[in-house]
Amino acid sequence: MPQIETARLLLRPYTPQDLDVLAPILSNPAVMRYSPRRSIPKDQVKEVIDVVYYSLARSEWRSDDSLYIL
Questions:
Q1: Are 27 and 42 in contact (CB under 8 A)?
Q2: In whole angstroms, what is the distance from residue 54 CA to residue 2 CA?
Q3: Taking residues 59-68, what's their average pLDDT?
Q4: Alpha helix locations (H) across the chain?
Q5: Regarding predicted confidence, which is higher, 54 or 19?
Q6: Range of the domain at 47
């Protein structure tokens, strides 16, 4: 799946290297309140990333906030 990049934003598929950033987000019930997935225990986040990255052919996107210009 290609990346989408502009001057201020990079959208790319999730990768296994995103685990440390995603674990606190995906395990937080307040953040995941309206998600169809609900919160995911921290110890299961790696499995979710593996499914997204490998099984779903990189079909999900994330933004890379290191490119934000505020």
A1: yes
A2: 15
A3: 53
A4: 19-26, 45-50
A5: 19
A6: 4-67
The arithmetic mean of pLDDT across residues 17-46, rounded, is 88
Q: Token digits for 36?
A: 């169809």
Distance, CA of 10 to CA of 8 (rounded, Å): 7
Tally of structural domains, the chain: 1
Q: CA-CA distances (angstroms) from residue 11 to 8, 27, 47, 56, 68?
A: 10, 22, 22, 17, 11
- pTM of full prediction above 0.90: no
**54 token code pair:** 């490998």
Give the pLDDT confidence of 33-59 residue by residue, as tens digits.
998 878 988 888 888 777 766 655 545
Number of residues written out for the chain = 70
Amino acid at 30: A
